[in-house]
Please model this.
Amino acid sequence: MVQLDQFGYVDRLEGRRASIVLDNGVRHLVALDSGVIEREDFALGVRVERRDGTTGVITNDVQAADVPTWEVFWEGGSTTQVAERELRHAEVSHPVDRMQAGMLDSAKAFNLRSVAADLWARHRSEELVSLSHARFDLMPHQVSVLHRVIENWPHRFLLCDEVGLGKTIEAAMVLKELRSRGSAKRVLILTPANIQRQWQHELKTKFNETFRIFNRDTIRHLENQGVPNPWQTEQSVITSQSFAAHNPTRRDEISAVPWDLIIVDEAHHARRRRQGKRTTQTNLYRLVRGLTAEPGLGRRSVLFLTATPMQLQRHELFSLVELLQPTLFPSEDDFEEHVDQRTDLTRLIAEIEERAPEGDELEAYVRESSQWLSRSSGSSPRSADDLASELRTSQRLGEVMLRNRRAAVGGFAERQAARWDVDLTPDEELVQERMDSIVRDGYQAASEGSSGRANAVGFLMVIYQKLAASSSRALLRSLERRRERLLASQAVDIGASEAQEDLEDDVTASEVARRLPPSVEREADRIGEVIELLRRIPIDSKARRLLDGLRELSGIERNAKVLIFTEFRETQEMLRELLAGEEWGCEVFHGQLDPDEKDRAVELFRDGVGRQALVATEAGGEGRNLQFAHILVNYDLPWNPMRVEQRIGRVDRIGQEETIQIFNFRVRDTIEERILEVLDERIGIFKDTVGGLEPILGDAEELIRAALRQEAENRDEEFERVGRRYEREVQRARKADSELADINVDTRAYREEIDKLIGKASAVTVSQGDVDRLLYNLLSAANARVTGPGDGIRHPQGQRRVEFGPPFTEEHRDLLDGQERRLVCFDPRISVDSETVEYFGFGHPIVDALVRNVTRDNLKGSAAIRCLAGVA
Model:
């Protein structure tokens, strides 16, 4: 019997009703004329099976039995009589068997199965399947890294391309390729806190990979639900390094999960440092070691990412290499010797490739190379190419480290920086003086309090200083809310670390400042005086200079697109109001916007006609490709140079065709002027990329904070000392970096192989129309409703709305994750940066499941008959 695609049997009849028992044991009472049950058809020659799985063929109908009974010849050779209720149709999967059994499907189902199987086979036959998933322009250097890693899997690598070359993309390509091969089901990505969303965005929009960010709130929620180890609940996890490595218990929980792939971004933070005879380890190093170097983890895939390998101490670099491949260097002394000889070896390889020696000259080079060739076996190299190739294999560091340089890759634009000078009005100078006094007393109070309160008060003073440098509006709004809280004596204090996290998440500065503890005596009265001064400044001098500068720019470039960065939401809102009054199209972009709002802001900025501005915060700008703009204004300056570099990196990307123009404000005789001097004149951040200098610039904000805690008369001297230090260290670091040649496979033959891979991935073997039809039919077969062009519902730029229904929703709950309705596109060129529009193509988990649904052996479509017109 069948009811709702379930099998069972009639247990007894009760008048016009039947009591049926389903195979799952559930009993139902149904009306015989309801149409919900029908008898299964059995006949001679039909293949059947018993509940124990034994199969056979019906050979006779037993007429004399009390209940319907059949004689069955079983595959073991015996023949028995079996009640019909104990039999089920045997699953016939082979197409020929189905044809012979008369189990024919529709021609439509057969065609869908055939087309899906054909396109799927073509897709899976590619050497690097993930290349066809790419929603970005494939770059040879990125494909070469992917090829090298996959070719040597499960070998581990340190990816250390220079800043801007796409280490994140390279790691994501490896992740996607391993997942397509079934080798990376569980993946953990450890990143600095401020780039978690960037990773999440890149993986979602470019690779159809959905990762969940684990933070304090995530863990608390899961623990409150009684989950023993929250890290076991998800297979795709991004978490911040500081949070993950915070304490031994959390490190143990993470290490207990059977991860298939570990990716550590900014891996130089996993440090094991040597100071004299003493060795220290960061908590991140302890966590990473537990994830990579414990017994039994040798085949776990691991990628370390850093742009700064040569800025580390030798011992630190050796420690990272040892985690990846502990047998590569027998000892640290051997590692030191190899690194010292690397420059000579690189020079020799370059010379051989340039001169292409033959005969006696080649033999001379072979003799000169003997110390490195001794590691290899076999006859003497027969050509210059053979010699260069063999020497490359002796670069043991290259077995684990892959590096590409901006100069070799090319495609980057020039940077030009300019300053907009600002002179403060008397009222603005008075505000600065009053705030300096409050901050000075606040730092003094912090130095005398308990550590927790001292940190919170000290952080409040930092916020005050940054707000004063940002805008009068931001300072006014924050002081007003701060004063309200102080007068109300609301006890809602938060600590410095929570305040820092809130600011990084784009919570308004006024809300953060309001919740920090009291700092100085008469604080409410003192900030009240500043509030009265600020209320007399409707538009400050800095804002006026911005308008003048933008007018100058629009006079040169009528349809200018200007990206303006600020650290504070209050300043952001002020700038939106200001620019709207000047007839600029202006959008805001910050971390509190939902994905739809972010997509909309970028689209309006990109596609808007006339003068357009996008005012963004750090959290808002992460992960977005804004290279269609080339004018950047730092309305205020982060004290961390790496944050400034990240801002510029939004427009300084491969393929930028315009000169990048960067404008900074020099507000005379202020903190901002001092910071600008350090960033520009000493570090040179606006002229050259400094992403690879993070190990030496990582403490810049702390040193700047220390300088600002000095008395006013000592402040300039302290800033000069900080500036000189960084000038020396940057020069030394750039010199060391220039000596590090590309550590990558770069032979002519290898480059040709990469070009072929890119060519094959880019070749159009199936039309977009064919792809559209396949996806429509796959979705239709899964009982999904698709709306799109031609259905009377407007969907911009080739977008479609898909709504899934049963049985797909029941069979694939894990894939849908409660999202039965989705906005999708079938063309990889559509809505490339959107977080809300999913690209439905091979490699998307749902599309792959749809293909499996129609190509499985036991599903419809494997056997059919179709009459072809005109064929005899």
